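Intended use. Records like the one below are meant for learning the mapping from a protein sequence to its folded structure. Do not use them to infer anything beyond what is encoded.
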Amino acid sequence: MSVLSGGKTVYGATVGILMLETQFPRIPGDVGNATTWPFPVHYRVVSGATPDRVVLNDPTALRDAFVAEGQALVRMGCDGIVTNCGFLSLLQNDLAESLGVPVASSALMQIPMIAHTLPRGKKVGVLTVSKARLTPEHLEAAGVASEVPIVGTEGRRCFSQTFLADQTELDIDACRLDVLDSARELTQTHPDVAAIVLECTNMVPYAADIRRATGRPVYSIYTLVSWFQSALSPRRFPVDLDDPRTV
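Structure written out for the chain above:
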């Protein structure tokens, strides 16, 4: 007979996601659309953490609020915590030290690993919702030691305006064109960019389009959280002794 040990309130969802307080639509692929994930997740909204305060201002002013909601997710039963904004790399150390479980605050954290996969002379490039606000401090907090090519979606049709101004309507096709134009600018201006990281979690629905348009592999919060979750809940591989393909 198997004996189970308890200690959690909720089981089966190992990843907890700290969400900004927003009202814009979240389509499949977006972190905040639960159908995005092939595994169950928990959500907590950080009150007052608007895109304006997190991206256009200093998110460290919201440290206590993020820690409190992260602790609530851990108490609920989460074994690892992620966030839904790449700019929250500035809170990586605070969250990791305060929550007592693994934390992955930003898609930017993948850059050092991706760089190691590339041929010599090739670089990782970044697409962001705001190049003007993505500072060396954000990169350093994500473990990125050197400068990387960065292109933002500012000044285009609607992508940056929709998400930074927290608008209630989303023009999916226009946002797709904004992201694709930015991706093409990145690879044309920096032909040595051999892989792309999407800082902005709202860009994930367009990742396949970016891959098709640029020919580069595309990494995002989706790839980060999928990797993160696979370690928290490793897949079990059954062995059928009667099936010669498995032994």
